[in-house]
Design goal:
Layout lengths: L2 E3 L17 E3 L19 H4 L3 H14 L8
Parallel strand pairs: 1-2
Length: 73
């Protein structure tokens, strides 16, 4: 499992990791799907709105869900 932070530049799901147990942090903003490589209008609102604390919590939740001793489910 992994945690991914993705922008709203592409359609939701386009760059999301595949498989079970992943956490994707993504913001649905009014400019979603813009396709811009450089965000000049919204100052990267879609990705800048995801905080370190939120990312850390997502990682901790993934780790807490893993079986003990690194065994595979």
């Amino acid at each position: 499992p992994c945690m991914a932070v993705v922008s709203a530049r592409a359609k939701p799901g386009s760059w999301f990791p595949r498989g079970a147990g992943n956490r994707v942090l993504h913001r649905d903003v009014s400019c979603a799907g813009c396709g811009l490589e450089i965000c000049v209008a919204e100052r990267k609102r879609c990705i800048a709105g995801i905080g370190v604390g939120e990312a850390l919590t997502a990682c901790e939740e993934i780790l807490a869900a893993r079986p003990p001793n690194g065994a595979r489910a």
